[in-house]
Amino acid sequence: MMRLVVVGNGMAGSRLVSEVRDRDPHIRITVFGAESRRPYNRVLLSNVLAGSSRAEQVRLVDSTWYDAHRVEAAFGDAVAHIDRETRHVVTEGGRREPYDLLVLATGSDAIVPPIPGVERAIPFRTLDDCERIIDAAQQARNAVVVGGGLLGIEAARGLAGRGLPVTLLHLAGHLMERQLDVEAGVVLGETLAGLGVEIRTGVSAESIEEGGVRLAGGELVEADLVVLACGVRPVTGLAADAGLEVRRGIVVDDELRTDDPSIFAIGECAEHEGTVYGLVAPAWEQATVAADVITGGKALYRGSRLVTRLKARSVELAAMGETQLTEEHAEVVRFSHRARGTYRKLVIRDGRLVGAIVLGESDAVGTLTQLFDRGAPVPGDRAGLLFPGLSSAPVADSPTLMPDAAKVCQCNNVTKGQIRACWEAGARDVAGVAAATRATTGCGTCRDAVEGIVGWLCEQEGISV
Length: 465
Description:
It contains 13 helices and 27 strands. By secondary structure, it is α/β, with parallel strands linked by helices.
């Protein structure tokens, strides 16, 4: 019987295990997790920090799942060494486990800047970190978050939502500079300021002291609680020590195999075609492909198209593709209304949508995401894309007009047609659809759309929900 060992039980590793078990009831599976907890949805930690979800609500699997599916899970015993000659892994606790196939899903670690006093700060990465931040926030009078990327903004918004005065320090000239252009970064900063987060861009933290964060130039930004969100780094040491090819991540091919054909890598630790993906949707796409290959199927991973969504209460933001291109290189359509916190931008090249930013409430996101995802030709009415309510063109977010092929849940690749099929098979509410398709279980931003589709299907049949 084939023995599969999975190193890492986070969002990529736990998904791979369930995908393999769905395809093959017999393969012997052992999964090692460095954290002592059952896997949880890291994407939703910002909700836990904000107090809108409890820790147990972000679990990915039930405690009984492993026994019920005959999967052996070892929590809190990290793998320390891979012996490729004898095909064994050895854990920190000294356990040796043989494998026929090995999957590395080691994820990434928070980057902790090497500045004096950094041990006084708390990184924002794991559920343990999250609980430490919440405990500290209860005693704190004010907080500083270092880092203005996606996680830093979610942490700052979460703490402000708990009533703490928060200052966000960011080295770059504008927020989320990897996903947003300058103007979107400014509008986002103004929106956050209105929610109680003071934004300081273009500043560098030199040290962390008793009373707060010392900036280059000498100013002290006062804080009882300092949270670090300075980015992440793929965890590749185990692979490098085993002699596998590592660049920024563990290098994999289209089957997600490393240069040792019996070892795969997926998720944030893997590098495919020069890219390391830091979002959940690509990790789950990779888990599906790897599970197919491991169980004898034919599948290839061709890379992912990234849609970044911010999950912070009262801040609506989606960014996708090449948002930084200017009029010299593409057709750019933009609308900005700073007083309302609204900014919308389309980047179109050769008649296709290659990038978009939507900041502020908008019913355009569903349509734009589909156009970007499929590389479909952009309709001639550009204004109608930015303001779906103004044009007579159908809005893809409206369940009646949405084609069955439209992707509703980006994280899990679920279409309207799959939701309809599920409903026809008896799933009459969102929980039923989620159990069957996993829609809504990633970042959760598609929940309203799924509710809309289920509600509409029930109306069609005259079923009261």
